[in-house]
Structures are given as structure tokens and as C-alpha cells.
Write a structure and sequence with these properties.
With 220 residues, this protein is an alpha/beta fold. It is 40% helix and 21% strand. The longest helix has 25 residues.
Length: 220
């Protein structure tokens, strides 16, 4: 059990400090993951940015992910999606359009706070405050693959063992503090799991934004 996202991220950072990282970049999945990512960036002296992906919600069960979509527009459906009541082709198309519009909205406001980072030839840590089905993380990893990182490490405080195994096949390594066999919801492992708003994400991105000269040097 973690006190809050900061507590979980501090514990996670202790594991990550043991590994060599090359020009480390922390990519966080908004919104809660950005709080986790900010602590990791501070503790690892790394750059902080976001990678945008959203889960596709099951009909009548918004907490259940039947898939996900990334900012590149790629859609992923879980194996059980076809067995979920009401998850028709038409429903999934509407949900996909809705979540893609939200990704684009967030992209506009978050990129005003800091421009997109360069991931090429860098050690990239992709983080969230936890994973359940892993759909949004897999979508984020697909987005990142096209940016040619040197290595990709998924780092999360908590996730179910079967999801962690699936993620290990999609990245270079997975670092996780808790992998309980009986997994119900991410929030069940936190004493404080309050919702994170856009304003908090923007504040953290501005706080960790690189100096203009450093950014220019990387993109030159």
C-alpha cells in the first residue's frame, strides 16, 4: 500500500537509480502518471514529458478498458473486447473518436506548456501511477517506438503479473514494485488516489521544462 503517488514514485526511483541510463527521459501518461513521472524525473535528474494514450471504455463499465488508442491514432483492442456486452463495431468507433478528440485536446494544452521532447538514442522511462489491462501503456509504447529511443523501460508502482509479462515483450525492461495476484483496481493500492487535473499536469510540465538553449541544441 502506498501513501500517495509521490510516495510510490520515490520507492520506484530507488530501483531505477541502480541502472545506468543514457540521457534519461521520463515520459508519463496523463494525468496521474505525470505526478509519478515528475518525482522520477527529479530523483533521476531526467527530463519530463508526456506520451498521450487513452483507454477505450467498455459500455456501461467506464472503468473497464476494452482497448486503447495512442496519439498516433493506432487502436488496440483486448482479446476479450468482442465478448463485452454492447461493444459493437459502431460503439467502438464512437469511443475511438471520442478518446482521440480528448488526446488532441490534451496535446494542444500540454504542448503550450512544453514542446515535445526528443527521444532518439535516449534511455526512456515510460510511467503511470499503475497499470491494469496495460492497454494504454501498450499504445504509448507503440507511439514511442517510432521515435527511435536507445532503450525503453516501463516503470510503474503496481500492476497484475499477467499484464507485466505482456509488457515485457513490448519493451526492454519492466520495473514494478507490486505485482499482486489478486488485482482489483489501481486505486486500491493507494491511501490517497485523488484525481489529477489538467492544471496540475501543466504546472509540472512547466516546472520541468528544459531551458530553451538545451531544447534547441537537441533539435538542431
Amino acid at each position: 500500500m502506498f501513501r500517495d503517488r509521490e510516495d510510490a514514485a520515490l520507492k520506484l526511483a530507488q530501483l531505477l537509480k541502480k541502472r545506468p541510463l543514457h540521457d534519461a527521459l521520463v515520459l508519463a501518461i496523463p494525468r496521474g502518471g505525470v505526478v509519478t513521472g515528475a518525482v522520477l524525473a527529479r530523483e533521476l535528474a531526467a527530463e519530463l514529458d508526456v506520451v498521450l494514450s487513452r483507454k477505450l471504455r467498455a459500455p456501461h463499465q467506464p472503468e473497464l478498458a476494452i482497448g486503447a488508442i495512442g496519439e498516433d491514432g493506432e487502436q488496440y483492442l483486448n482479446e476479450y473486447a468482442q465478448d463485452v456486452s454492447g461493444a459493437t463495431r459502431e460503439y467502438i468507433a464512437r469511443e475511438r473518436d471520442y478518446q482521440l478528440a480528448e488526446i488532441r485536446r490534451r496535446g494542444r494544452i500540454f504542448r503550450e506548456a512544453r514542446p515535445a521532447s526528443v527521444a532518439e538514442n535516449r534511455s526512456v522511462i515510460v510511467t503511470d501511477d499503475g497499470i491494469a489491462t496495460g492497454s494504454t501503456m501498450l499504445a504509448a509504447l507503440h507511439v514511442l517506438k517510432a521515435r527511435n529511443p536507445r532503450e525503453v523501460v516501463v516503470a510503474v508502482p503496481v500492476g497484475p503479473p499477467e499484464t507485466l509479462r505482456e509488457l515485457r515483450a513490448a519493451c526492454d525492461d519492466v520495473v514494478c514494485l507490486l505485482a499482486p495476484e489478486h488485482f482489483y483496481a489501481i486505486g486500491a493500492f493507494y491511501q490517497d488516489f485523488d484525481q489529477v487535473e489538467d492544471e496540475e499536469v501543466i504546472r509540472l510540465l512547466r516546472e520541468f521544462a528544459p531551458a530553451p538553449r538545451a531544447q534547441d541544441a537537441r533539435t538542431a
